[in-house]
Amino acid sequence: MILATFGNVVVIPLSVSFFTEEVFYNPAWISLNVAVDFLFIVDLCLNFRIGFLSHENGIVVLETEKIKNKYIKTWFIPDLVAVMPVDYVILITEVLEVHTSTTGIAGARVVKLIKLTRLFSLLRLLRFSRLLRYAHNWEEFHGLDVGAIATLLQFLHVIVVIVLMCHWSACFHFMVASIQDFPENSWVTREGLQNRSMIRQYTTCMFRSLCHMTTLNYGSRGVPKGITDLWVDIISMMVGTVMYTLVLARITALVTHSRVSENVYKSKCDELCQYMRLYRIPGALRERAICHLASRYQGKWFDEKAILMELNEPLRREIISYNCSNLIKKHPVFKDANPLYLLELLDKLEFECYQPGELIIGRGTMGDCMYFIDKGDVEVDSRGYTQILSDGSFFGELCVMTDITRRQADVRALTSCRLYSLSISNYEHVSKLFPKAMHGMETQAQQLLQDLKTIIE
Questions:
Q1: Higher-scoring residue by pLDDT: 368, 135
Q2: Where do the Cyclic nucleotide-binding domain residues begin and end (predicted)?
């Protein structure tokens, strides 16, 4: 139906404007139109059975009575007018009148009404509303909201609308002159297009329409001579100006909103670079700072806390659990843990990122948190005792789970590390809720403390 609707809104203006009488009233062409009309009549009937999405509760409504009432109140009248064969009814009536009349006046009326039937064929352009509904429904149920593909599709949608409007305008320019039998002062006669090929006629009209709609003067030879042509040009220019403004606003919005996070990230990077230039930060340190932002945000700047706080608690915790799923799989303490305990613990974790060579923990400093390694390798150096920890390990737990307040080791990143930190206050909160679940980590902390005492002795 989408292809049939799109074909209608393209071919109908073309046939009304450029087809000769032999082609327009050819039995094959009429049969094709009748078949397409029948297809749309069937679709009209099916719309009384097709459910719709309720915006109040997000549920698809399938009740026949509600579907019928909604359709009648919204799109039934335009769809009904679009499938009414008014042009064929008028043509058949007048042809029958000619056969039953003995005067020549009836024949002259038929010649005029044959042209009028072409105008009534334009009622089928109301099917364009169906195309808009199909596009809206497709975007609502299957559309992509973010990413380059969504931006490309929206941009192509704008281009299609522009070309379609120019196509309609081109057909309108030629149709007006054709209905008037190409008067001598019309632009078609002055251009000598009456007896040219349809391709030549359409191409010239398309060029003229595009020039008028973009307020260029290449498409016409001075001011139109006839009043009708003058008004056609006025309407074309007005429509073109409005369309140009709307399209420009649409494209600007697409460019602005399609890469919001990337633009914010670039803005933050520029701000950081200006800050470092102002205070003459050394080049090596500048590079490390920029690399930190690149590793931390990966080219997209999000306020993760603010975004997650917009969601309800179950959704927020489920997303956090998914983001930390690798940490849960790699850490042996979490494998058989209580799901409620994991949700509470993960909700308290803070994401941090470190570059190779950076000191994460310094011996002798006050400890206020512990770290879980999601990805990367770190080196723990405690008075000659060296150990390398990797994905799934944790460190810094002595200051959190024991009475020790100062760090007992230096911990340095060997590779780019993605860590999650758990503060003392959050640890105490989780421990009160799930005292047994924290027993595994506390046991490891006590064992580590005994090992350190042994090394010192």
A1: 368
A2: 333-430
